[in-house]
Every structure is written in C-alpha cells, then in structure tokens.
Amino acid sequence: MNEVPPGRDESDDVDDLYRRASALDESRPSELVRRRVLDHAAQLAAERAAKNVPPRIASARGANRTWRRRRPAIFGTLAAAALAGLLITPRFFTPSVPPGAPPSAPPMAALPTMTAAPPAADSRNQEAPAPAAAEQRANRIAGPAAEFAAKDSPAKMQNMAAARSKTAASAGMQAEARRDQDVASTATSQAGALAQPMASLAAAGRSSDPAAELRRAAEIGDLPEMQTLLDKQPLIEARDENGRTALMLAALHGQSQAVDVLLAHGADPNAADGHGTTPLQAAVAGNQQAIAAALRRAGAR
Amino acid sequence: MTVADESDETLMMRYGRGDAAAFDLLYRRHEMRVWRYLKRNVGNRATADELMQEVWFAVARDALRYEPSARFTTWLFTIAHNRMIDSVRTSRRQTSLETLGYEAESVVEQLTSDPSAGPLAAAVARDQAGALARAFEKLPGEQREAFLLQVEGDLSVEEIAAITDSSFETTKSRLRYARMKLRELLKEYA
Fold first, then answer.
1. What residues of chain B lie within 8 A of the CB of A57, using their CB?
2. Closest in B2, B57, B64 to A281, CB measured
3. CB–CB of B182 and A276 under 8 A?
4. Which of A31, A155, A160, B105, by CA, is between 20 and 30 Å from A292?
C-alpha cells in the first residue's frame, strides 16, 4: 500500500472541500488567548528592544551614571564657589577709590600681568578702556567656561568658577570674579533646570497615562472609553514604545469601529510605527478589508 | 515592497530584534491555520485554546533561536505538534493520537455558527461543516494529523515525516488513506 504516492489530482477535490468547509467555519480562538499571546509577545519585544539599545542612548545612560558618580564632587564645588563668593562680595561694596586719592588709579584688571596692553602714560585715559578690557577678559573666560559646561558636567563648570573666583580675589579683579560668579550661578540654575524635567518624567511614570489608556481602548474597541478620553485632551497621535498610535493598534486588532472613531477625530491615517508599518499595511496584512477601506477613504497610502 | 508582503521568515527576524508589529502580522497570518490544526486534532475548544496559547508563547519566546534557513511554517507546526503530543501524554486519559476523538462539546455546533448568513446559507454551512467534523472524528489520529499538517501547514511529505517521526513512505500512506476516507465520507459534498 505504501507504493502508491498520494496523487495531487486525487487529493484536489478533498482538499478543496476541506477548504470550503473551513471557510464556513466561524470557530475562532478565544479573544482572551489572542490578547494574552499578543501582550506577551509585545512584552518580550520591548525587553529585546531595550537590550539592543542604540549607542546614542547607551552613552546617555553612561552620562547619567557619570552624573550620579560626580554628584558629591559637584555639591562640594558649589559650596566652595559659594564661600569664594562670600569672600569676594564685600569687595564690591568697598569704595575702590578712597576719598582724596587720585581719581585715575588704574584698575587691577588692566595690569600688564593679565593683558598685553602697555601701561598708559595718562591715567585718565585708562578709565574708559579699563572696564572694557575687563569685560573682554570676562568674555574670554566666560566663553570657554560656558562651552566647557555645555559639553561637560556642571561639576567642572563650578570648579572652574571657583578657581577663577580665587584668582580674581587674590588679584582684585572684581569684574572677572563677578562674571565668574554669574557663570557659576548659571550652572547651578541649569542643574536645577535639568532636575525639574527629570522629576516631571519620574512623576509621569508614576501617574496613569491617558494616551496609553486611549491606545488600550482602541486596541480592544472600547468606544465609550475612547470617546471620554478623546474629549479630554488631544492624545490621538501619542505613541507607545513601538511607535504605534491608537489608530495603528485599532487597525492591527481589527477594531473597525475604533478606527472609524479615531479617523473621525482626525487621527493621521499614515502614521507609521517605529518600523515604518502604516495602519493600512497592517489592515491589509490582517485581511481587515473594512478597516483598509476606511483608511483609504481617509487618505491612507 | 510593503511589510505586508514580507516573508514569514523576515517578519520573524524582525520580531527577534524587538519589532512587536512583526509578530502581530505573523500571528494574524497563521492564527486560523494553527487553530484549525489544534482544534481538529484535539477536538476540544478549551484544550485547543490552551495549546494555542502555549504554541504562540513558545514562538515568541524562542524567536531568537529561530533559524531563517528553516521555513517558518515548518517550525511553527513542529512546535504545535510537539505541544499537542505533550498535552496528550500528560492528560489524565492517557489517550494516544490514534484513539483521540472529539469530546464533550459538539464539534458540529462549534463549526457552524454564522449569524450573519441567511437561513439557507446557514443550513448548507451547517451541513457541510457538520459532515466534515463527523468525517474527522472517524479518521485515525495519525492520518488526521498528517492531513492537517499538509493542508493547514502546507508542509511537504518529507517535512511531515520529520515532524511526526515517521518514515517518508508511512507518511505518504497516511495521507493517501486520510484522503480516501474523507472522500468516501464526504462524497455527497465533493
């Protein structure tokens, strides 16, 4: 009996009948199973995507670790800068020219040790250029310092400011010291500005995410919930960790009515996910003809 | 080429790299084929649901181990076959695939529920699907499985033989007898 191979011609009628009957078969796996499978797969995908972190993100994490490691040094430097500021500040309020003294004493900032300008014969002529020279020097200091701070950590920035403050104090260069203090305080405020969004992000992670709720509602076709969320705020184009909008999820999960609701609320029919898949492509791949037609009517390509 | 046109193997590789949408597409592409294979073999909706979840969990979990040199459907139905065998072996009834029959729930009832169809179409569908279900009940388990692997998994005789740990000739015989029996049982619809 084994010598007779199964002829394709013989099997065609049976196979065709089987397929016709299968096409009429409305039996489906339960929605719960489908949901569990897709959720599990998405969770594993997210874990894998997190492991395959691009170098840019990795370096950002490295910078974050560096920031944590240097935090004690930064606070120490800030304290030193504050102390230096306290020592210098009284000098700003001390009259630099005692009563009766010649009004044209050259400012310390114009000393040849700091500039290449030759000493002027007429001390009166020093009054105008001296602040300008100090300002230029302050700019020369502040420029690299700001650049340094921008590409490195606030700790280095503060170190530089503190060192400059000490130098300025010893040399009596009030303008430079003042400028450096300004730079230091700017660095402090920048650090504060950085901390604020980080705190906001942490708070956002703890609170419920209406955009995620909308995507979830679209995925399962919960129309009343979608309507409530859409009435509250414009979340329609928010994306999940895979770059999928609520419309994309609704299309992927065959939620025709959810697709209609989202399109009626102005959802972008061409919003592709993180891998370039559009809602129309997802609908076609899932054989969701009604959804594909609705998307095409809305201008999907 | 759109993502919808991408091969199963490409989608599987994409999923292995963390693309959840690729898995969604793969699942939707093969969901019903795996479901019919499992349900018509075990004949019980609850067991089929349980196996369905186990099979696709395994696909998701082992995506990184998937070798693109093998066809995705071969890999998928190998997993489905192995899960089904495990399920049979661990069941209290200790039944073998040969004796595994449809149980409890009426298969005919499961196969025929289309509220959108008209009364005549529904009757025809019920009749045909019922006949198919009854025919499957009468097939020996090994023949039934070989047939389902071929029509649902689109697998070759060699692939079915490898999956079921049978010889090429034995597999050919099973397929031939399965079709002969089905043709006989379904002749009024053929």
1. none
2. B2
3. no
4. A31
- Tell me what pLDDT residue A72 has: 61
| Rounded distance between C-alpha atoms, residue A296 and residue A281, angstroms | 11
Radius of gyration of chain B (CA): 18
* Chain mean pLDDT for chain A: 63
Considering only the beta carbons, identify the residue of A17, A27, A44 that sits closest to B186: A17
Q: Is A161 helix (H, G, I), strand (E, B) or coil?
A: helix
Contact with chain A for residue B169, Cβ under 8 A: yes
How many CB atoms sit inside 10 A of residue A146's CB? 15
Report the chain B residue with the minimal C-alpha distance to residue A273: B21
CB atoms within 10 A of CB A78: 21
Q: Which of A36-40, A101-105, A114-118, B165-169 bottoms out in mean pLDDT, i.e. has the lowest?
A: A114-118
Q: How far is B17 from chain A (nearest CA, A)?
A: 6
Picking from A6, A10, A19, A9, the residue whose alpha carbon sits closest to that of residue B174 is A6
d(C-alpha A9, C-alpha A7), whole Å: 5
Pairwise CB contact (< 8 Å): A11 & B175: yes
Tokens for A235, please give them.
């979340």
Please report the pLDDT score of residue A186 as a whole number: 46
In degrees and rounded to multiples of 5, residue A118 shows phi and psi of -70, 150
pLDDT at residue A1, rounded to an integer: 38
The pTM is what?
0.46
Contact residues, chain B, for A52 at CB < 8 Å: 17-18
What is the ipTM for the molecules in this complex? 0.79
- Are A26 and B114 in contact, with CB atoms under 8 Å apart? yes
Contacts of A1 in chain B (CB under 8 A): 173, 176-177
B-chain residues near A33 (CB < 8 A): 49, 52-53
- CB-closest option in B15, B25, B125 to A24: B125
Q: Cβ distance A107 to A128 under 8 Å?
A: no
Inter-chain CB proximity B61 and A287 less than 8 Å: no
Name residue, tokens 């082992």: B62
**Which of A208-212, A247-251, B145-149 has the largest mean confidence?**
B145-149
Q: Please write the tens of the pLDDT for every residue from B80-98.
A: 999 998 887 776 444 434 4
State whether A40 and B189 contact (CB < 8 Å).
no
End-to-end CA, chain B? 39
Highest mean pLDDT among B3-7, B28-32, B44-48: B28-32
Decide: A2 and B172 in contact? Cβ < 8 Å. Answer: yes
Which of A4, A13, A34 lies at the smallest CB-CB distance from B176?
A4
Amino acid identity, position A293: A
Judge contact between A48 and B22, C-beta under 8 A. Answer: no
